[in-house]
Amino acid sequence: MDWVAADYSSLLWWLDMTGTFVFGLSGGMLAVRRQLDLFGVIVLATAAATAGGAIRDMAIGDQPAAVLRDPSYLLVTFAAGLTAFFLHRLIERASRPVMLLDALGLGTFTIAGTQKALIFGLHPASACMIGVLSAVGGGVVRDLLVTEIPRVLREEIYAVAAIIGAVLVVLGDRSGWPPLATAAIALAATFLIRILSVRLGLRIPRAP
Amino acid sequence: MDWVAADYSSLLWWLDMTGTFVFGLSGGMLAVRRQLDLFGVIVLATAAATAGGAIRDMAIGDQPAAVLRDPSYLLVTFAAGLTAFFLHRLIERASRPVMLLDALGLGTFTIAGTQKALIFGLHPASACMIGVLSAVGGGVVRDLLVTEIPRVLREEIYAVAAIIGAVLVVLGDRSGWPPLATAAIALAATFLIRILSVRLGLRIPRAP
Amino acid sequence: MDWVAADYSSLLWWLDMTGTFVFGLSGGMLAVRRQLDLFGVIVLATAAATAGGAIRDMAIGDQPAAVLRDPSYLLVTFAAGLTAFFLHRLIERASRPVMLLDALGLGTFTIAGTQKALIFGLHPASACMIGVLSAVGGGVVRDLLVTEIPRVLREEIYAVAAIIGAVLVVLGDRSGWPPLATAAIALAATFLIRILSVRLGLRIPRAP
Questions:
Q1: The model's pTM
Q2: pLDDT digits (tens, 9 = 90+) for B152-172
Q3: Which residues in A have their CB inside 8 Å of a CB on B?
Q4: CB 3.0-4.6 Å disulfide test: which of A24, B130, B156, C141 passes with A49?
Q5: How sure is the predictor about C6, in pLDDT bands with cuts at 50, 70 and 90?
């Protein structure tokens, strides 16, 4: 049914823009904390929100990268940067909703990235890697730009939630689940694992 | 008239090589200051001069990247690296001409990058982003390689000059100005804004 | 003779996987030393082993990148990460064999990268640059991810061995030597120069 496909892709677009905005906020907030100027705030917002997808597209060969084809991405990251610049105190206090939205963005980026890699014919293992890279790559570039060891390498079960989401997308694709159901299950899993890991303070083991 | 096009593209090539050399110098000088060996000096010269254009080409899908197609780029960056290695004291004292040439390189790289992105059919906003990335990306990679927060994020109106140049290129393209006139205006604007910002010590605001 | 070609490419594959494993070990060991968790260990192993080749493929336009087409690469880097995680004490003590294997990986990656760039029609100078970038790029990304100045910029004749190997590949290609002989000579040269430089403590000059 066409209206399902249309609704689904429109839903995906909105989820994608939400993820872009929240990841942009994370970049903008880090820039404010590191006392960068307005340009630096917008650069870090853009890097955090778009670098993961740009690396994904360059690695699989979908060029120009999606972020360059739909100007909505740049508009949304600029809005996120300006929001961080002018409202950083407000956002600092709203750490809980920001964390929830960030978990949503993590799920959306992972699922969209993994699905795209599968569509480009990648092996399931490569598709998972690309999905996770889409979701965490922006944060890595954001942190490196201010010479911090990327948070995803230091803290909490962030990437693990993305890995499980990516594996679920691949499983669903292999098992012939309806794409909408696959995406919903993978999104819910990524989101909940991320939220629970923060709540329960779960950590991944270090070397013995 | 063909000879205008030929002259124009030959002029662009010379401007491009000038920018490549000066950006290469900036990388080589940083490497000397950080006491890297000869290989490190040449790597930083190459990164500073070519990484911006390479990222641009990978993002828009023009491959092999331009720097790999015309060996003049590598020749010029090697020359810049060797110059920095052997003549760093001389260059240190010539900070004013180096700054002027750097402002010229900033303008050239911005304009060439933005024009190329427009030729590849990118949206004007994306073309501006790619133009600015072409011009400042090399400096970002240069600074990250020695784990410094990129200068463009910390100091002065460097990127803003590039942004204005890129916007002028897009405006000229949209308004049907002759490409040569557009390039000249955008180059002059980028160059002058950069020079004036250094002279007057202008800065971009930080978050309130 | 087909069996020569088959043997040659099968040999290259095994050398490539050996290089991937040892480079992966180097990433995993650095991550353990910096007390990253299991995910971080695997990320650094993957970055060290695959980022050089991925940058090579994105720059020359061979997409999806080779690391995404043959899942063996990911399998081998995961194995290297897990080995570093669980056996880091053992590996620490086996520094000499690890260094020998690393020199082998340096040679293999350089030669494979340079040959690939020549096959893609690049200028010899560009092919050398791409060959060296294939071999040292992974280590650069590995070190930047933990905000260290890349070892290749700080220490010993590592890159120089790769440069000589790449030049030999180009020379052999130009002079019509049999590919197998070219590869063998270039591999031996890179390997021996690297080993000797460590033994003799050779260094590249710093700026006067």
A1: 0.93
A2: 998 768 899 999 999 999 999
A3: 31-32, 34-41, 43-44, 46, 54, 58, 61, 63-65, 67-69, 71, 74-75, 84-86, 88, 144-147
A4: A24
A5: low
